[in-house]
Amino acid sequence: MSGTGPRAGSLAWLLLLPLLAWLAVFVIAPAAILFVYAFCEHDELGRVVYRFTFDNFHRVGERVYLTIFIRSVGYAAVTTALCLAAGFPAAWYIARRPAALRHRLLLLVMIPFWTSFLIRTYAWMTILKQDGLLNSLLESTGFTRHPIELLYTPGAVTIGLVYAYLPFMILPIYASAEKLDASLVEAAHDLGAGPLRVFAAVIIPLTWPGIAAGTLLVFVPAIGMFAITDLMGGARIPLIGNVIQNQFFQARDWPFGAALGVVFLLLFAAAYVLLQRPKPAAA
Amino acid sequence: MIEARAITKRFGPLVAVDQVSLQVEAGEFLTLLGPSGCGKTTLLRIFAGFEAPDSGTIHLAGEEVTARPPYRRDVNQVFQSYALFPHLCVRDNIGFGLRMRGRPRAEQQARIAEAVANASLEGLEERMPHQLSGGQRQRVALARALVCRPKVLLLDEPLSALDAKLRLGMQAELRRLHRKLGITFIFVTHDQHEAITMSDRIALMHRGRIEQIGSPEAIYRRPATAFAADFIGQSNLLRVAVVHREAASARVRTDQGLELTLPAANLPAGPDPFLISIRPERISLSSEAPVSAASFEATIEERIFQGPTDTLRVVTGGGARLNVLLAGGGAVPAAWREGRRLHCAVAPTDIVVVGSPAS
């Protein structure tokens, strides 16, 4: 381990160069362009007019967008909570299996990624639609006489979001849980902690990095998701992602879309800083 | 204080603990000694409550606790890996058990301070486990368990991660603590030296059973089986058959024709052949005339210098090989080199019958 000299340092930068170049061209530059657009106007044809204005940000604060924004946060929060409730036990269970079984179970978690996200969403639609799989099942078992409206409801959107993001919750929690030495749980039991107290005093603090990472990985993309809300919500329940998408495509109001994006970005950054603060040791 | 009655534990086809009964007295220092896989750690985990036995019962201070979870047993364990909580400082690690049991804050602080002082950890209270040395971690683990004042302290190879010098220091430290606190200790180790120097009694385990139980001295002097003779200390194990028997003594002969005398009362009830054990330090050597009628001649095959002791490997005319342990430091004549013929003698009472060769 002699990688501290000046030469090793420059080598490290050289190795990072492709990544930095990629980030500069495809992340930082577009973000900068969006930032500039957010303070511009647009003409009737949707072209950006470079004249400084704050109007776009004033519009972001309008009641209709505020409502949509709050609804988006609500959906994302419910999605994150459900993913956490379903993902934590799953991740913990997998992490406590013998190594060989662990890898097979992890594979099962990742299998959905082998198919296109859109195809999987359409699959859910065939399950939930009026004459779909679930309704047929409910009717044939006599549970209901008429098909229940499942698709294009808030429930369908939530199912779609949870389904799409669950692996992003399981994987980071698994990574933390797998590193947790089983003897720590035994030691806590040995010292008089029942199952709940072991969970609160040992398991949660030690898997906190995974919980925080999973929460970020689910909450942030869920808040901006537009494809699932379009397909499974039938565009009846617009979320902030749909609004932004609309500004760039149908409404051709790029500056306003950019302003929404910038506000969004700042909120994410704030949420990230809050979540990354080390959690005080619970006990 | 704590008792196992006919405990059996299987893992699939493997019988880890096989019908073990063991009674540990209050204030006793008992060691479960044996090679890896002998069931000693499993038995300890059954005492702690981490494993449920397939059959048999555990009794703690007269009460049956077999079905009780670990957090409702008055027993604490020191883990082999120490299992210190990495997110808690030394103080919070030591106070964990008191906090979980909801002791009043003032009592917690007083007992933590006492435990910190007892373990010589003053000034390290705010350190995190990863900032401690191996020996310090070990002391935190010990303090964390003892601060709960358990009826029985279980120690799962607690010294195996320490280097040799530190281990000797911690052995003395554990003995001192045991005497001072009067708590029952059950100590698991595969190290016979550790077991011999520390324990009041040793339960020697082999293949899930207790092979022999007794004071270190009793097991060393009178090993009951070939395994015990071989595992605790060194042993010359010889297969012999009786050639001549009188009222008081009997003469036996090894496969290689070496003849030895032992008290007739020590002869096994079973048939020939059987195994005898002779400790290497109980064989006396002489370059002079035969010490007694029972002595025999052997040639030095190899001499191994070990510092305080020398080991001579000798071979008899018939080809029987014996290890002889002698005090070193110049006590062994320089002329005793490879090839030298010597007279060997073993007192009859130093020959211990350790069972039939099949066992």
Share of helical residues of chain A: over 70%
CATH architecture of chain A: Orthogonal Bundle
Structural class of chain B: alpha+beta
Major sheet of chain A, described briefly? 2 strands, antiparallel
Q: Into which percentage range does the β-strand content of chain A fall?
A: under 5%
Sequence-ordered SSE layout with sheet pairings:
The complex is a heterodimer of chains A (283) and B (359).
Chain A: H1 6-37, E1 41-42, E2 48-49, H2 55-60, H3 63-95, H4 99-110, H5 117-128, H6 133-140, H7 154-179, H8 182-190, H9 195-224, H10 227-232, H11 240-248, H12 254-276
Antiparallel strand pairs in A: 1-2
Helix pairs in contact in A: 1-12, 3-7, 3-9, 7-9, 8-9, 9-12, 11-12
Chain B: E1 2-11, E2 14-24, E3 29-33, H1 40-48, E4 55-60, E5 63-64, E6 75-78, H2 90-100, H3 105-118, H4 134-146, E7 152-156, H5 164-181, E8 184-189, H6 192-198, E9 201-206, E10 209-214, H7 216-221, H8 226-231, E11 236-245, E12 249-254, E13 259-263, E14 274-278, E15 283-286, E16 296-305, E17 309-316, E18 321-327, E19 341-346, E20 352-355
Parallel strand pairs in B: 3-8, 3-9, 6-7, 7-8
Antiparallel strand pairs in B: 1-2, 1-4, 4-5, 9-10, 11-12, 11-14, 12-13, 14-20, 15-19, 16-17, 16-19, 17-18
Can I get a quick summary?
The complex is a heterodimer of chains A (283) and B (359). Chain A is mainly alpha-helical and 283 residues long.
Question: Could you characterize the architecture of this molecule?
Answer:
The model of chain A has no long low-confidence stretch (mean pLDDT 88). Chain A is 73% helix and 1% strand. Chain A has a single domain (59-276), classed as Orthogonal Bundle (MetI-like fold), CATH 1.10.3720.10. Chain A has a two-stranded antiparallel ribbon with strand order 1-2. Chain A is mostly helical. Chain A is globular and about 70 Å long. Chain A has helices at 6-37, 55-60, 63-95, 99-110, 117-128, 133-140, 154-179, 182-190, 195-224, 227-232, 240-248, 254-276; strands spanning 41-42, 48-49. Chain A is built from twelve helices and two strands, in the order H-E-E-H-H-H-H-H-H-H-H-H-H-H. Chain B is built from eight helices and 20 strands. In chain B, the strands form four sheets. A six-stranded mixed β-sheet of chain B has the order 6-7-8-3-9-10, sandwiched between helices. In chain B, helix 2 packs parallel to helix 4. The two termini of chain B are 32 Å apart. The model of chain B has no long low-confidence stretch (mean pLDDT 91). Chain A binds chain B through residues 181, 183-184, 186-194, 197, 201-202, 205-206, 281, 283, and chain B through 48-50, 69-71, 75-77, 79-81, 83-88, 92, 96-97, 99-101, 144-145, 148.
